[in-house]
Design goal:
heterotrimer, A alpha+beta (108), B mainly alpha (229), C alpha/beta (272), B: mainly alpha, C: 272 residues, alpha/beta, five-stranded parallel beta sheet, globular, Tscrpt_reg_PadR_N (chain A), WH-like_DNA-bd_sf (chain A)
């Protein structure tokens, strides 16, 4: 598991990437993050990040009913979100390559 | 604009110091009551009491604002706005105090030139505000300032009115105009008093502005050259 | 059903969130805990702490891309100060741009406050070159207020100094106060306020005229834990809004929040 401080800078990137693949709601995103082995993210980190994406127009919300329990807030990526995703993905690659070169092990 | 706001808020500030205000307002009364039987003596003492009261209160107001003034300057206020506003407020207070006591004298004493008594008290109040402010500007600590004011008022009371020392006292004009009002002297007394009062007022107001202009001066730094990272 | 959502909403409102928006966030947050079939208290922790956290998160810009530093707001080059024969410091260099926070640290008596006053223009340096943005806000360690005036009257007074109309100065002051989770009383003279609340007033007064550069001299004296967090959140907000902040501090664990550290040390001088 990635320690939280590391994830913090790239959480938005991860969320946007997942939303690009398909719209999702909070719980689903948490599951996908955990399944990808990135992080077991606490709700207190996840939901504020989602709200922030919404507030900045990077993700647009919509409400959908669920089979069980209350309706859910689904998020879809916006064009602005896609732009940010591309920019941040670029940054991430640069960062990752830099770290890799430092620890002397290239990703295959 | 700034001056009027400062004046209004200084007035409110003074109004809230209930106990101090009560003592300051009553102080001239004791001066008056001691020689109430002698018209000239009692009105002159009363006037000196007003002078002392107004100048001391101004001293305390000036000192209380010591922490605020530099910050007001940094926010953009001018020295004239800050100090002028405070002087307006304290002069207004002094005139009110003088007006109140003038009514008392009018009821209690029988005076020919009553208007001249009013002139004496009003002018003294107007001098007392910048005088207290100047002392406050020169002596930053309240105790020192209060003692200096006490000394000046004591010398003023005890000095031979015809002597040289008395003429260098800030409230000498009160004696001259008072003599004209009560003892029926010539108008030259009146003019001498007015001239002395005008000179002292100018000296104190100019002095207090000059000291504060120096004390509240801000270093002017050039703005950084515009450059981006 | 617990009263967690209610306490959460109340804290949001106290932090300056519109009531309508707070209700909405309260409902959503409850629903989010519901997605995980968890109790909000268990899931998000204490209501007021999560409210603070959420507000801070929503106000910080979106992650990884660090915003570019802005124009230079303050530049000190070889600045020195001596009182008679005693040298306080010499050779101090520091550059702070818009969007940056600089901390001045060092032992007691090494001249931290003097340097800040020099930056403000209240004290003259003995030597060196200083360039500085024109609009500057200065918050002293203590004092700097008139004891017999109320907080609102202070807003009017400082607003007038900056050429603001009284009504605008008051509403601006009240708004800035709410961001420090403080609601000024109408009648209470400042001398009756607690030390921490007085410092909040000081902060608001330093910011009232919208300065480009904020100079803060250990402004959190008397703050409780919550106010202390509010303060640093506010510093980050200023930074994110493109302002430059210089703060004198002795709290080393806050230094990770700042962009520059100037250690005046025992001999003075030098950017770390």
């Amino acid at each position: 598991m990635t320690p939280r401080p590391w994830l913090h800078g790239f959480l938005d990137l991860c969320l946007l990437a997942m939303l690009r693949d398909q719209p999702d709601y909070g719980y689903g995103l948490a599951q996908r993050l955990a399944a990808a082995g990135v992080a077991d993210i606490p709700g207190g980190t996840l939901y504020p990040a989602l709200l922030r994406l919404e507030q900045q127009g990077l993700a647009s919300p919509s409400w959908a009913p669920s089979e069980s329990g209350p309706r859910r807030k689904y998020y879809a990526i916006t064009p602005a979100g896609l732009d940010t995703l591309h920019a941040q993905a670029e940054e991430w690659r640069g960062f990752r390559d830099g770290v890799d070169s430092l620890i002397g092990e290239r990703v295959r | 604009m700034t001056a009027l706001t400062v004046a209004g808020l200084s007035a409110r500030e003074v109004g809230r110091r209930r106990t101090a205000l009560l003592l300051v307002i009553s102080l001239p009364l004791w001066f008056y009551l001691v020689r109430r039987d002698l018209t000239g003596q009692s009105t002159r003492m009363l006037t000196l009491g007003i002078a002392w009261a107004v100048s001391t209160l101004t001293l305390f107001v000036v000192n209380a604002a010591r922490g605020v003034d530099p910050r007001l300057r940094l926010s953009g206020a001018s020295v004239a706005g800050i100090i002028g506003g405070r002087l307006i407020a304290m002069s207004g207070f002094g005139l009110l105090l003088a007006g109140g006591y003038l009514i008392l004298v009018g009821v209690d004493q029988d005076i020919d030139r009553f208007w001249a008594i009013g002139l004496m008290m009003g002018i003294t109040a107007l001098i007392a505000a910048p005088f207290g402010s100047l002392v406050g500007a020169l002596l930053p600590r309240e105790l020192e300032g209060a003692l200096a004011l006490l000394s000046v008022c004591a010398v003023q009371m005890l000095a031979d009115p015809a002597g040289t020392i008395a003429k260098f006292m800030p409230f000498w004009s009160a004696r001259e105009i008072g003599t004209y009002a009560v003892d029926g002297g010539g108008t030259d007394l009146l003019w001498r008093g007015l001239a002395h009062a005008g000179a002292v007022w100018l000296l104190c107001t100019g002095g207090t502005l000059a000291v504060f202009a120096y004390r509240l001066r801000l270093a002017r730094y050039p703005e950084p050259v515009l450059e981006r990272a | 059903m617990s009263d967690w959502p209610l306490r959460f909403e109340a804290e949001l409102v106290r932090l300056g969130v519109q009531p309508e928006r707070a209700r909405q966030l309260g409902a959503e947050t409850t629903a989010q805990a519901g997605e995980h079939a968890a109790d909000p208290d268990r899931f998000f922790g204490p209501a007021h702490l999560y409210a603070r956290h959420l507000v801070a998160e929503l106000q910080s810009p979106t992650a990884a891309v660090p915003s570019l530093p802005g124009p230079v707001m303050l530049r000190l080059a070889g600045v020195s100060k001596r009182y008679r024969r005693r040298e306080v410091f010499s050779g101090v260099d520091l550059t702070v741009r818009g969007g940056e926070v600089a901390a001045i640290v060092g032992a007691n008596g090494c001249g931290k406050s003097t340097l800040l006053r020099i930056c403000a223009g209240l004290t003259r340096p003995t030597g060196g070159d200083i360039r500085r943005a024109r609009r500057v806000g200065f918050v002293p360690q203590d004092g700097g207020t008139a004891g017999w005036l109320t907080a609102e009257e202070h807003f009017t007074l400082f607003g007038a100094a900056a050429g603001m109309a009284p009504r605008k100065a008051r509403s601006t002051g009240t708004h800035l106060a709410s961001r420090l989770a403080w609601r000024p009383g109408h009648r209470q003279p400042v001398q009756e306020l607690s030390g921490g609340t007085r410092q909040k007033l000081n902060l608001v007064l330093g910011e009232l005229h919208g300065p480009d550069l904020l100079l803060l001299d250990e402004p959190y004296q008397g703050f409780d834990q919550g106010s202390y967090l509010d303060f640093w959140r506010q510093v980050r907000e200023w930074r994110d809004a493109g302002r430059a902040v210089v703060v004198v501090t002795h709290l080393l664990h806050e230094l990770e929040n700042v962009d520059h550290v100037l250690d005046l040390g025992a001999h003075g001088g030098g950017d770390r």
